[in-house]
Amino acid sequence: MFGSSNLRLLIGLALQIALTLENYVVMHDAQRRTKEYELLTEIGQAISSHLDQDEVLRTVHVELGQIFDTSSFYIAFQEDDEIRFELEIEGGQILAKRSRPVSNGLTEHVIRTGQPLLIQSDLEQVRSKLGADFIPPHPAKSFCAVPIMLGGIPAGVMGALSTEKEYVFEARDLEVMKTAAGQLGVAVENARLFSQEQRRAKHLSFLNSISKTAISSQDAEQMMGDIVREIQKNFHYDHIGIGIMDYATKDIEIKAEAGTTSLALGKRIPVGTGILGRVARTGVSALVQNPGQGHLSGVLPESRAVLCLPISYGETLLGVLNVESRDESAFAPQDVLILNTLADLLATALHNSFVFQKLQQQSITDGLTGIKTRRFFWEALSSEWKRASRSGRPFSVVLIDLDKFKEVNDSLGHLEGDLVLARVGRLLEQKCRQSNVVARYGGDEFIILMPETSMDQAQVLAERLRLWLATDPMLEEHQITGSFGVASFPVHAFTAEDIIRVADAGMYISKHAGGNQVRSAELLGDGEASGVQGQLVSGYVEGFLQRENTGPEDLEELVATLRKLCRGREEIDRLALKEGIETVTRAAEMREPHADGHGERCAQYAGIIARGLKLSEQEVEDVIFAARVHDVGKLFISERILNKSGQLTEDEYAVIKTHAELGAEVLRALPDSKPLEQAVEFHHEAFDGSGYPAGLQGENIPLWARILAVSDAYVNMTSERSFAPAKSHDQAIVELEKLSGTRFDGLIVRLFARQLKLEKASSFGG
Question: pTM for the whole thing?
Fold first, then answer.
């Protein structure tokens, strides 16, 4: 069937096909080499641009996957007796890092020999020939691995495997992996060096921070608290504690603690008990790790690693730094070195702090009586005065002068007099409350600061102390009693100095009345009363306004305190209280954008209306004051609601509407304030009865409230607001006239428009 021509044709065709296939193989090889070159270039660039080891390993895996199958792939390093898998891919999924003990597997063979290994088929036979008896849970059918060299020594393996097919990998795949492993070795070495430098820099920064804390703090407990928190921030252990040695009880008391488990603060551990107690007894540090199943005798029952370091200054053990973790082998050698350095720093810092505390205690303690010095008393009094000025809470001072003490010194000598002073100091310290400050004021004078104590309470306490002194056997033998003077803030004076002067005056009254009495005196005469009451009110108001939040719950206290501060002549009361309420109003205005000066402008226009209505001079003055403070109640409304940019909810609007009633409540601090209260409470009532808070209608709305409604509306219309631009005078008058008879009293609107027109004309005429 086939002739010679057919045969020649087939031969020619076969040659053409062979040539085409050869060209394809050559082209494929060239493309593969190009791809390999590009791949290795990409790996090199990626490696050189990253110092994070995990990022480098993931980049190598992704790039190699473009050449051959890396769906099952790993990169592992041998560290001591463990093989640590830094990157492990199984079925295309990244697995968590893990470790396994060193055994006799193919990975160990590659590391041991330092030679690449390609097994294309019959893997179990090859494994047996190599003497590798470790078989993983999912044995491979094809395996390709190369060593990773660190510093010229094989330290790890890069491997790819297939658990399903043989002949998955070729020799050229092995060559690509060898080149990539060489680049990876350099990158891992760089990453490790960079990580070490970072760790070293972090440790230096940590020690620097600890040093600053230790140098800057003079309070030992605060310093220890700051240091354990700094350790926790940098090392994340389960327990970090600093225990201080108590030589009296032979215990270590945990004074500062941090960590994920903080349960030991204040715990006392006897010397010799547990790891911490043994370190306290021997003065030798202890590091216990890898305990197996045994109990470590640490502070935490579940601890698996404990590092306990003595804190010693010279030959003296000051305490112990105790660090514990639930993880075995939690302490790397470098961490131990850092914590040892920290213990040395801590020893010096604690020694200095203890010395400072001792000197400080000596400087504030009277050497004879053991109670506080005059200097300490004045510092405590200054702090208490500032606190009381802010909160409006009272405090009292009791000044004591010993009766007939001079006779003891003159007849029995100064040594006996010193014993009397020491006895009095001890009695006062023992019988006073712990919150009180008892001090020697000078010579035979003693003074007591009683925080949160009213005048009545101070009188009772002083009387008890007088009885204790009068009935003490030793003092009674020497006929020693005390003349007591009592003064209270804010009842007697506004400043700390004036409080002392009032107490001193009371003490002299007691002394001149024969002694052994408790008295108080008003130091200030009538001529000074007005100025002092003004100071009292302004001081309290200033402190009240410094509070972070003021709500309706503070209103009762404000009113009650203002009334209490002004208990004298009526005119002085009204003047001081009105100034205080105006101050509160200005503070309320400052809480709202564009509201500064709002009350003052309202007062100006309310005065124009009041004078136009021919009200008396006193009524005009009161209307102006009511207009000036009509928004005082907004001080007790949340700033979040006051300054909300969007539309108010029904509940929020209901809160806003309470400001009128709250303002009226503030004005109840004034004597005979009913008309003022009504003006402020009802200034949002509408003439047609649609206003609030009571829905009053027409002339049932108090006249002063109707005046305030018009002046308030006019000022709002002609001022820039967050929700509307300012209107001109003419536009505002037109708007008021439109709302006459519905929102506003038409008579007052017409009068207001006429009065403004007259004032404008007179100003032009002038």
Answer: 0.41
